[in-house]
Design brief:
Strand content: under 5%
Distance between the termini: 34 Å
Number of helices: 6
Radius of gyration: 15 Å
Number of strands: 0
Helix content: over 70%
Number of domains: 1
Length: 96
Amino acid sequence: VYKILNNISYVKVVAPLLLVILVLIFFAPEEFVSIAMDSASATTGPVNIPLNMALAIGLAKVLENVDPLLSGFGIVGLTSVGAVISVLILGILTRI
């Protein structure tokens, strides 16, 4: 929602998140890294994709000077990144 409301580029949102994932991979146990990467595909289920796309396109249509198709690009990918980060953090916390 923040990305759409402020008309921020997809790269400016995803690049820092991918760097966070890269750093977390070095600290998380190997088993959790595998589970984290697998959980990214599990988040793109039959409920998540239509819900996120409808939310993104609907919000972008309400706003002025925002292209709904470009604003909705990458929303599903952002939810997948969130799942990966949370599993990696869980792996680090279990090691402590």
